[in-house]
Design goal:
The complex is a heterotrimer of chains A (293), B (457) and C (329). With 293 residues, chain A is an all-alpha fold. Chain A is built from 14 helices and no strands. The radius of gyration of chain A is 24 Å and the shape is globular. A five-stranded mixed sheet of chain B has the order 2-1-3-13-6. In chain B, strands 10-7-11 form a three-stranded antiparallel sheet. Chain B has a two-stranded antiparallel ribbon with strand order 4-5. In chain B, strand 4 and strand 5 form a beta hairpin. With 329 residues, chain C is mainly α. Chain C is 66% helix and 1% strand. In chain C, strands 1-2 form a two-stranded antiparallel sheet. Classes of the chains: A mainly alpha (293), B alpha/beta (457), C mainly alpha (329). Chains in contact: A-B, A-C, B-C. Chains A and B meet through helix 4, helix 6, helix 11, helix 13 and helix 14 of A and helix 1, strand 2, helix 4, helix 11 and helix 12 of B.
């Protein structure tokens, strides 16, 4: 392995790293595409700064003629935005951290250990992923009442931990870890738990970063499940809070607050994404080749 | 390459954990106050209650779900007034406002599973059906309705009646009105006060088309208000007074054909931009003078200042034209009934009923429906109150409510039934489109709708 | 990183946790126990919060529930009524067409864009990957409103068409354009993440393969066709299956585009199976019928996913994959 990378290094020194130099036309094309993709987001930003009564009257103006921060002031004054935000934060952090732990633990035996029903378990988990979540709403709601978890943060968080896609993703990633590393640890006398904590966990960090982003994204934007579990307005996350401003399309939605709240709700997730971007992409790296090398 | 972002990840995890601890503490203290609401009350109550004198007021906590923040505010302020008006009971409202669709879904789930429903709840007319089927999960409101029946526009209670028992009390009458943009009608030389019948309206529409070059009106093609309004006005509707479905009634087919003629024959009506009257595109278009009039219920008035600011002062409100001279000039559209659910603590029922009566079925409450919420009341005498006689500069400096009073004796009520919700959906999803875009024969459209609904029974 | 054994007793077998149980192994180190410990949290939560609700839902699908608190066992009655339900066949048709559309758009286009960004002929490829990913981060309520405006008659979309001399279209208002509108939103939201999937697949291809091809005089397109495409096949399969599942579970896009009409679109042209399920359950409160719709949908997804996997030769590969390698050790 080391000899191989030495050769690689030599190759890289003697040849240009990239096959093609950046060219004007492809870059221009991508810029054009990027602009198209950004327009809806741009519109969201602009609208947040429009006076409340001009939001629809001026809808087709790309460059606003009148700008105000009244909407932001109103949002913090008229709506418990900070409360919504902290609830969203608890729910997102709780479900993401929990899912990461549960899924990583379960993926280890499913990918690297031999035991009865291993494939049955894995396939069952995948099959449940095919069912639309809406189907489970009512049985789940009744269950949450029986468990006394209605209107609690735990009630929203707990059922999300056993994440089928997360398990699938983590298992695929773990399959790509070279067997030699595990064997070496075992030869050194590590127990299976030691192998897990000292070999597996450090090696799946990129996958953890990727899943952290995917899970947070899901939890942060989830509306349906917190809606069913949460009762009291002080427990509402951002999605529900914004939904309460909507009040149904025919019932006087407060668009100026909705736009502004949505902008502020989107920002933190964008920051997290930009910060973790490299790890996020790295986590996908072995996905396709996992176990089939 | 990864190390930098892995470090970020580590920092982020720390921030997250820290944040959770802080937030959890905050959340804890928050839920503490809600889980023990009686504790602070007992310390506060004596001091506050003293002016009203005498014994300690019985505290009744009521949870209330709605889908309009304004409704929540209204009920809460009514509770404050109620508490000030007597000293026996202190009503405390804990209101929750959520999205329309979400709220009804959550209510259904809660009622279905036998627990988790609020004490008071707003049920929108088009979602009332499922609650009325089988064993009604709402509390009968017979007592408070009967006590006030002589003052009420009794037709407004019909939508929330099952087998003659009332289960909901509305926020408004919801009278259908014609909103004219007088800048356009004036430019066309049309006198809107001379429009009494639909023939007059068509004549005016042709003038508007010729002189100004815009359509007289717009028709919802993905919503049911345009269609349902005229179905009712013509003596049809979805259900009759005894809750029987009458979709294939000739009055309905005739009304649909009439609208088809406005679009395809006289060509004075077009499909509403954005397909319905709450679409952004419609707001934009009407705001810019894209059409001369529209018929929608009274509660639509609020949309003009909120979404169509440029027509300020130009809008005037008139009754609907009649199908024949002296015929009905208005009917009812939409509605939201406040109900008491069966899951309420039986000890609280009496207080809840009494409060609901105070909040909705008193003279003062009905005045507030207009002054606070901007809705048309359904209490007859209220229309003579000075508050309802005030001219509104936004609407051509006319007292809109006073003109509604003159329509009340030419009002056609709307009745509902078990599958009202499904018919609403079918009207908006398919019927309006088939009729007013695809120009399908009306009889066929109503027959298909009837077949689909019958298949659900 | 690897420390010396704490106790020589704990030496594990060379070939992973062995099938044979050694007499001296402590309880917690026994293979079955190890697997159970690691799996327990997931499995407990999974059975309580997934499997059990699914079993309830399936049993509800055999009942007729028309009103609150009343259920009656009717066997396959709900499934039978789905057979000649015109709404269900419409929803099935819409959903299948949407799924087909997303497979045609959301697999090849992101793959080609990923290849373009990977080829080095674009400046700052990472920035473009980030920008194209951003739509997925935006909250859905707002995505709906924004697209209602963009696709409106005098919206940005038509303005853009106008630049090319094309006529304005009533995107959200006519049944024929319901599917294209849904696809526009889908492409906007999902292209970015699929590019990420493909980019990582492309990154694992050794550079020397390309270099050899360059020496052989292969054009960029030929390199894509003969190197990138075959070597990213597993990723293509993965993305296709995800797209298929996401396509059949279509809900959010119509629900937000036609929010005011409960997500069905003009003349029900945008009504997906899950939208129908949602409305059947919550607007009509026919829980039995709604559950039956969900079960049928799951079966449809399963069958098409299996067909898709088989077409890619997935099963034969998996047999020879990790399993055989481990046994040979």
């Amino acid at each position: 392995m080391t000899g191989r990378s030495a050769i690689d290094a030599v190759v890289k020194l003697t040849r240009p790293r990239k096959l093609n130099a950046p060219r004007f036309l492809p870059t221009l094309f991508m810029v054009f595409l990027a602009v198209l993709f950004v327009i809806p987001l741009y519109w969201l930003v602009v609208t947040s700064f429009r006076p409340a009564d001009r939001i629809f009257a001026d809808a087709s103006q790309l460059i606003p003629t009148s700008v105000t921060i009244d909407n932001f002031v109103a949002l913090f004054r008229d709506a418990p935005f900070v409360r919504w935000f902290s609830n969203s934060f608890i729910l997102t952090a709780g479900s993401t951290l929990g899912s990461l732990v549960v899924v990583t633990m379960a993926a280890y035996p499913l990918s690297r250990l031999q035991f009865p029903f291993r494939n049955t378990i894995f396939v069952t988990v995948l099959v449940t992923y095919l069912l639309p979540f809406h189907l489970l709403l009512i049985p789940l709601f009744i269950l949450m009442i029986d468990l006394g978890l209605i209107d609690t943060h735990l009630g929203v968080i707990l059922p999300l931990w056993a994440h089928p896609f997360g398990l699938f993703f983590m298992r695929q990633y773990m399959l790509s870890i070279p067997q030699e590393l595990l064997d070496a640890a075992r030869v050194d006398g590590a127990s299976e738990y030691g192998v897990f904590f000292r070999v597996i966990v450090p090696l799946v960090k990129p996958a953890l970063a990727t899943l952290a982003i995917l899970f947070s994204l899901e939890a942060w934007n989830d509306l349906l499940w917190p809606l069913v579990v949460m009762r009291s307005p002080e427990n509402f996350p951002l999605t529900l809070g914004i939904g309460s401003l909507l009040g149904g399309a025919s019932f006087r939605p407060q668009w100026h607050l909705i736009m502004t709240a949505s902008l502020l709700a989107t920002l933190p997730i964008v920051v997290v994404f930009v910060m973790l971007r490299k790890s996020f992409i790295g986590g996908f790296a072995r996905l396709g080749t996992g176990g089939k090398e | 390459m990864l190390t930098k972002s892995v470090r970020y990840l580590r920092i982020l995890v720390m921030v997250v954990v820290l944040g959770m601890v802080v937030a959890a503490c905050g959340g804890q203290s928050g839920s503490d106050t809600t889980s023990a609401p009686d504790a602070p009350a007992e310390t506060e109550a004596p001091g506050e209650e003293e002016p009203s004198g005498g014994g300690e007021a019985q505290v009744v906590d009521l949870t209330f779900w709605t889908f309009v923040q304004a409704h929540a505010d209204f009920i809460e302020s009514q509770a404050a007034d109620y508490n000030a008006s007597q000293s026996d009971v202190e009503i405390r409202i804990e209101s929750t406002s959520i999205d329309w669709d979400d709220m009804h879904n959550r209510l259904l789930i809660a009622l279905q599973s036998g627990t988790g429903a609020p004490d008071l709840v707003d049920v929108e007319i088009s979602r009332f059906g499922p609650f009325s089927r089988g064993e009604v999960q709402l509390h009968p409101l017979t007592d408070i309705v009967e006590r006030n029946s002589e003052n009420l526009v009794s037709e407004r209670l019909a939508p929330y009646m099952v087998d003659g028992v009332p289960y909901g009390i509305d926020y408004h009458l919801g009278a259908f009105l014609m909103y004219y943009n007088t800048e356009i009608t004036d430019a066309a030389g049309v006198d809107i006060d001379a429009i009494e019948t639909w023939d007059d309206y068509i004549e005016a529409g042709l003038k508007v088309k010729e002189e100004v070059g815009v359509p007289m009106t717009t028709i919802e093609t993905s919503g049911g208000f345009s269609l349902n309004g005229l179905m009712l006005l013509n003596g049809g509707g979805r259900y009759d007074a005894s809750n029987n479905r009458i979709l294939e009634d000739p009055a309905n087919i005739e009304a649909a054909e009439f609208i088809q003629d406005l679009i395809f024959e006289q060509e004075i009506a077009v499909a509403a931009p954005g397909t319905h009257h709450h679409a952004v595109e419609f707001f934009e278009s009407f705001n810019a003078g894209g059409s001369a009039s529209l018929w929608m219920p009274q509660w639509y008035m609020i949309r003009f200042p909120e979404n169509m600011p440029d027509v300020e002062g130009k809008i005037k409100v008139r009754p609907l034209p009649a199908f024949e001279p002296g015929g009905a000039v208005t009917t009812m559209g939409g509605g939201t009934g406040t109900a008491i659910t069966r899951q309420i603590d039986p000890d609280k029922v009496e207080a809840a009923m009494d409060f609901l009566e105070f909040a909705k079925l008193t003279y003062d409450a009905q005045v507030k429906l207009w002054t606070v919420l901007g809705f048309d009341p359904f209490w007859l005498e209220v229309y003579d109150d000075p508050a309802l006689q005030e001219p509104d500069p936004w609407f051509g400096n006319e007292p809109v409510m006073a003109s509604i009073k003159d329509m009340l004796d030419r009002l056609i009520p709307e009745y509902t039934g078990p599958h009202y919700a499904e018919i609403s959906a079918r009207m908006g999803d398919v019927m309006a489109f088939d009729l007013f875009v695809d120009q399908k024969p009306a009889a066929e459209v109503f027959a298909e709708a009837e077949a689909e609904i019958a298949g659900m029974e | 990183m690897l420390r010396a054994p704490k106790s020589p007793r704990l030496l594990g077998g060379e070939g992973g946790v062995g099938q044979e149980r050694r007499p001296g192994t402590p309880f917690l180190q026994r293979p079955g126990v190890v697997a159970t410990v690691f799996l327990a949290p997931f499995l407990v939560l999974f059975f309580v919060f997934r499997v059990w609700p699914i079993i309830s839902a399936v049993s509800i699908s055999f009942q007729d529930i028309q009103s609150i608190g009343q259920g009656e066992f009717i066997g396959l009655g709900n499934y039978q009524s789905l057979l000649d339900d015109e709404r269900f066949s419409a929803a099935l048709r819409n959903t299948a067409m949407y799924t087909g559309g997303t497979l045609l758009l959301l697999v090849p286009i992101p793959l080609m864009l990923a290849a373009l960004l990977h080829s080095g002929s674009v400046k700052a490829p990472g920035a473009f990957r980030t920008i194209l990913f951003l739509p997925l981060l935006a909250g859905l309520v707002v995505v709906g409103v924004v697209f209602q405006l963009i696709l409106s008659q005098n919206g940005v979309m038509n303005a853009g068409l106008g630049l090319f001399g094309l006529p304005s279209l009533a995107w959200l208002e006519v049944p024929e354009l319901a599917l294209p509108s849904l696809l526009i939103v889908a492409v906007w939201r999902w292209t970015g993440i699929n590019i990420v999937y493909f980019s990582t697949g492309l990154a694992t291809i050794p550079n020397d393969l390309y270099e050899a091809a360059v020496i052989d005089g292969a054009s960029g397109f030929r390199r894509f066709l003969h190197i990138s495409l075959p070597l990213t096949k597993p990723i293509i399969l993965f993305v296709s299956v995800l797209t298929l599942i996401g396509g059949f579970q279509l809900f959010v896009e119509p629900f937000i585009l036609w929010a005011q009409q409960g997500g069905v679109g003009p003349n029900r042209a945008g009504m997906s199976i899950v939208v129908l399920l949602y409305r059947t359950a919550f607007t009509n409160f026919q829980l039995g019928l709604a559950s039956a719709i969900g079960v049928v949908l799951a079966l449809i997804i399963m069958v098409t996913a299996i067909i898709q996997l088989r077409a890619f030769g997935f099963f034969s590969r998996d047999e020879t994959g990790s399993g055989r390698r481990r046994r040979s050790r």
